[in-house]
Amino acid sequence: MRELKIVRNIRLGIKNLVLNGLRSLLTMLGMVFGVGSVIAMLSVGEGASQEALEQIRRLGSENILISSIKPVEEESSPQVRILMSMYGLTYQDEQRIRETFDAVRTTVPVKAVRKEARLGARAMETRLMGVTPEWFDLVQRPLLAGRFLSYQDEENHAAVVVVTEAVARNLLPLEHPLGSFLQIGGEVFEVVGIVESLGEQTAGVQAPDRQEDVYLPLSTTRERYGDMTVRRSAGSFMRERVELHQIIVRVDDIENVEATAQAIEEMLGRFHRQKDYRIDVPLALLRQAEATKRTFNIVLGSIAGISLLVGGIGIMNIMLASVTERTREIGIRRAIGAKRRQIVGQFLIETVVLSCAGGMIGIGVGVLIPHLITYFAGLTTVVTAGSLILSVVISLSVGIIFGLYPAVRAARLDPIDALRHE
Fold it and tell me: Which InterPro entries match (predicted)?
């Protein structure tokens, strides 16, 4: 019986709203845009956060990235520019890290050399990456064709390379990319594999790989290119000696990552007279990004909440006007025996129906906007189930909170005064 009364009151509320259709529609627009903006802004924030978090995860939560950097004083001093500059990580650094710390499971030394690669008339500026076979275990990238570098390649100083998909598309023939021979800096190498590169800048950290990379055994890189490079610019040249450009350290357990990174930094500080290295911990970046994501969502939700507040005030305003217009109706209902709680229920149901109808339309708008953003702007957006549930809860809450005062005011009207109202 009680359920029938609720259904009857809902039908009566919808009927009253339909009688003033245009006014009800204009009132709902506040809820439509409020709910739509909440979903759209949270989806944009979620998409950006997830993309950043995924990029950091690709660096490896158990990895520590140590990179050589040129000291600031050497970059700015004109006297040093005409001499040989020696800085960065060394082979001894890699050996010390591998042998000193029990938590270190694997270390991968990396040597980078920029050279032009040629195949016939095609040419491309590439970055040669001298690595050990473990590199492909620590920085996992999909193998598209052929094979990775092997321990036999490293022992034999083999003249073989693994190239990225971008290099293969620019230089290699489409029919037989494997087995082709690339001329790189005056040396000839056989292509034995092609990998997909996902390298990109993430939270200020350069990923270990780039689109223009060519991987070859570290022993081959040392033998054929050495540790000395010459840079020419504006009629001058500068010689640089850098043994290793990066060391990737894999720790045995994620709980030991930050402590091991701190210990490595202290050890390197004892053997380097200047700060010519940088240590990046993807795990710390991941935690920082997750905290930033929570703050970002709170800020976006607060901004969108202002639109909902405006929509709720609009609903309250229209319901107060409705109470004034229907004062005589309220007096008649009270005169024939309607109780105050029934009057409250009638107007409260109308407000909830109004806000929920606007909320449902707003959900549709909020789901559509992220798709349009992704299609036209190319940004990643993610509509989560949490944002949809939050929108439904907000719609109900706004209807109840902003409809309660008009409903109580209607119920408190004196029946005699209400009947006399014109």
Answer: ABC3_permease_C (IPR003838), MacB_PCD (IPR025857), Macrolide_Exporter_MacB (IPR050250)
